[in-house]
Design a protein that fits this description.
By secondary structure, the protein is an alpha/beta fold. The protein has a single domain, classed as Glycoside hydrolase/deacetylase (TIM Barrel, Alpha-Beta Barrel), CATH 3.20.20.370. Helices cover about 35% and strands about 20% of the residues.
Length: about 270
């Protein structure tokens, strides 16, 4: 069975069970306008699929605000503060660990949130995406007090609310093989990981209510990765069991009027 057919078969199983598979897309490391960003915005616009752009507050340039002015399908979330590594040599990269005072990290995050809210207004959602998908529990505990409503890392979530007032919704399929020349992981691997999380949700091996998250980095996607992303959006948008969610719907932070982008009617 081809990779795409495996995805169709899994979505068919959701449909047969009278269930809808929620999906969402998160794109990390946004800082400025660029041809790569414009390509991403064109793809999501043409497919009518929402994307959460994780913006680095300390590195953001004014051109990004201008680029997103008319980007109907993009919502801004926060990608740490400066995407800076504070871990000692030889350790995994961490910005939001305990390698420096937690209060300092939280204060920077709050400062970044205020700046993004000022720059993007209602286009900003108070969701934190930790750089390198790593964050210490001591920092997580302080996020609601710093004004954050959501947290997004990588892998199936352990709990809907890791702390009161904070909803977690993660990404599950990273399209880039960071240890293999930062190349696209390939159609087979991408769909295998996508189907694996969808099946685990359907069989309730993981939280069935957590939307399956696709993780992209527009500055690092190669031609094959861009092609896959467009094909994925097109194929899933035509399936009755697939529903692409915006940030507010994925995190449950919106009102009853929050738009949800579903499959096209057939």
């Amino acid at each position: 069975m081809s990779a795409w057919r495996r995805l169709d078969a899994e979505l068919d199983a959701w449909h047969a069970a009278s269930r809808r598979a929620g999906l969402w897309c998160r794109d990390d490391d946004a800082c400025r306008d660029s041809p790569a960003l414009n390509r991403l915005l064109e793809i999501v616009r043409d497919a009518e699929v929402p994307v959460a752009l994780a913006v680095i507050p300390a590195l953001m340039e004014p051109s990004l605000v201008d680029a997103l002015t008319q980007a109907r399908f993009a919502t801004v979330v926060q990608h740490g503060y400066a995407h800076r590594n504070y871990a000692p040599p030889g350790a995994r990269n961490w910005e939001l660990g305990t390698h420096r005072p937690v209060a300092q990290s939280v204060a920077e995050l709050a400062q970044g949130r205020v700046g993004l809210e000022r720059s993007f207004g209602p286009r900003f959602a108070a969701v934190l995406v930790p750089p390198w998908n790593r964050i210490d529990p001591d920092v997580i505990e302080r996020l609601p007090d710093a004004g954050f409503l959501g947290l997004s890392t990588f892998g199936p979530r352990a709990a809907l609310c890791p702390f009161p007032g904070l909803v977690q919704c993660n990404a599950h399929v990273d399209l880039i093989a960071w240890r293999r020349n930062r190349a696209f992981i390939g159609v087979e691997a991408a769909i295998d990981r996508l189907v694996d999380h969808l099946r685990s949700r359907r069989e309730r091996a993981v939280d069935p209510s957590e939307p399956t998250g696709i993780l992209t980095h527009h500055l690092d996607l190669d031609a094959a990765g861009w092609q896959f992303l467009g094909d994925l959006f097109a194929r899933t948008r035509e399936h009755a069991a697939a529903t692409w969610l915006d940030v507010h719907a994925a995190f449950g932070t919106g009102s009853a009027e929050t738009p949800v982008i579903s499959a096209r009617s057939t």
